[in-house]
Fold:
Amino acid sequence: MRVLLAIHHPLSQDLGAPGVTLALGRALQARGCTVDYYGYGEAFPGEQHHSALHNLRFPWILSAHLARVARRYDVLDVTTGDAWPWAQAGRPGAARRHALVTRSHGLEHTVSEQLRADAREGKAHLSWKYPLYHGGFRLWEVARTLHLADCSVLLNDADVAYARERLRVPASKLRLVPHGLSEAFHGLPPPAPPVDGPLRLATVGTFIQRKGREDVIAAVGRLHARGLAFTLTLYGTGTPEPEVRAAFPASVQPHLRVVPHYAHATLPALLAHEEVLLFPSHAEGYGMALVEAMASGLAPVSTPVGVAPSVVHPGRTGLLVPIGDVDALVAAVLELAADPSRRHALRRAAQAEVQGLTWPDIAARTQALYEEVLRIRADSR
Structure:
């Protein structure tokens, strides 16, 4: 089977959706598929910095590329919002037997609705430009692609429900397929028993409002005021350390460590020194950082976004708190801090919970989906 994986990002193992795309491609290749990739590196050769303008141009550049090469592939697996010009034009250049699959790494509509809700509550600021593209035309592009594709792959139940109920995409064209964990996160040693000392907290993800930045800042300020001894390490902020530190109260800053960037393969070793993951995200397509931290033996305190409701079972594999509820976030951390043995049990259970998420399994499910779509298209001709 010949597959093209296309994504509106530069392809890099150390980035979220691109890293997942590469992992899926390798797993499909291991099953005998021929896999090619098309991302920003191919669409914009030589350009190192990308903006919303690149997002706007990508569907058209990709569509011109597909018109030239689509006949080489059985399956064109393209991120949502990007294949609609080509599909709208009648799929020029495609082989008679082919499938167009669109893949969401987080449905833009659900993210937009949460962002708008945060803005109404004064928790986020939206530029006047937001409704023009990200909160406007881009949402139309995504919806149009969902309707034109033969099948759409989504990452969580909420996104599937939204696409079916709000965007009116037929349920028969929607599939829920999660991400896998790379080999680096399998077979890790169980978490070490608790030791005396400050509670070791961690966040993993970019230092932005959507990831719960303000909630973390407020929560650790309150924890410090309550007298809790803790450290907080922020991994993968993408923001320079001085800027991250300056966002926290001065009294908290001595307890912080900031790691703006890291090689993805090193994350298990980095997290081996932590105990509790703070994951108060306001919107996620999946939440790869959550499952990777759980695999590394951290007890998660998470909001019910993305994959979290499927893997964070309150009181068994972690704790769930409402979106934007700083009081609940503080209470959850204090609960774990007060009972080291329970905290350790949650860490072990969290690690065990995600061990079934493997890329070979996800690739097998994905290939079966491709074959199903190809069969349906062949039968309908």
In short: The CA atoms of residues 290 and 297 lie 11 Å apart. Residues 2-180+358-380 form a domain with the Rossmann fold fold (CATH 3.40.50.2000).
